[in-house]
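Students often ask why inverse folding is considered easier than folding. One informal answer: many sequences map to the same fold, so there is more than one right answer. In these notes we will look at a single instance of the problem. The structure comes first.
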């Protein structure tokens, strides 16, 4: 393990033909919208760390195929409120979850660096794909809401494929759909474990989008950027691009 950032020169010059990207907290500012949804339930978002911990545990069950997406959301909400001392039945949990999601959907927005980066990548002749771990209808609705539904050559969603990141198969499925080899492909995401390290293990070039500046102990082979505005320099260091 190393703690240094990996420079753009570590990528094979001229060998990249495709870029895959995560959605939540990579292209879409999911945390801000999710916190607004939690505030709609509680009147504040002070319990955000507890919500994240509970969500992460229940997402593991969902991605392992133990529960479907709606069941996961309902059981997550019940457990969260039980920890706050309020017992909910299934109906009340589902009703609160629908209210939360409705509030979230009204606040979905792209990060400011998303569109300029995607336009540059597309104009450079690169193939583009999304690789996301989530429910299909939810993510496709989100892509449409933020104007990205037609921005990619292919969209790979864990629910549709039956496997999720960091399983190599989901990365290989995206590469096959794009008509490129893993070694010709970069994958970018906000999760070091699921996105960057998962991509490297699958033979792609993994890039961790570390917006919070948390990089420490970064595995060998993983590149780190703090903004999508830095991605063009990582792909083609010598070509001009918008800042």
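Output (designed amino acids):
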């Amino acid at each position: 393990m190393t703690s240094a950032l990996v420079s753009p020169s570590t990528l094979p010059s001229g060998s990249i033909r495709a870029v895959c990207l995560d959605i939540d907290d990579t292209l879409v500012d999911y945390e801000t919208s999710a916190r607004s949804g939690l505030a709609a339930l509680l009147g504040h978002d002070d319990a955000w760390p507890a919500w994240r911990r509970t969500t992460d545990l229940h997402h593991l069950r969902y991605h392992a195929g133990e529960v479907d997406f709606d069941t996961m959301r309902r059981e997550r909400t019940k457990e969260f409120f039980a920890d706050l001392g309020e017992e909910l039945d299934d109906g009340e949990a589902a009703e609160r979850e629908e209210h939360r999601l409705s509030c979230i959907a009204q606040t979905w927005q792209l990060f400011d660096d998303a569109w300029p980066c995607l336009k540059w990548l597309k104009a450079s002749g690169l193939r583009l794909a999304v690789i996301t771990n989530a429910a299909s209808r939810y993510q496709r609705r989100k892509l449409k809401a933020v104007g990205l539904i037609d921005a990619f050559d292919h969209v790979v969603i864990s629910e549709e494929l039956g496997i999720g990141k960091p399983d190599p198969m989901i990365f290989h499925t995206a590469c096959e759909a794009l008509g490129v080899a893993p070694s010709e492909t970069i994958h970018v995401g906000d999760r070091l474990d699921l996105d960057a390290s998962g991509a490297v293990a699958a033979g792609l070039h993994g890039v961790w989008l570390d917006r919070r500046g948390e990089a420490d102990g970064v595995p060998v082979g993983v590149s780190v950027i703090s903004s999508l505005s830095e991605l063009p320099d990582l792909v083609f260091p010598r070509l001009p691009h918008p800042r």
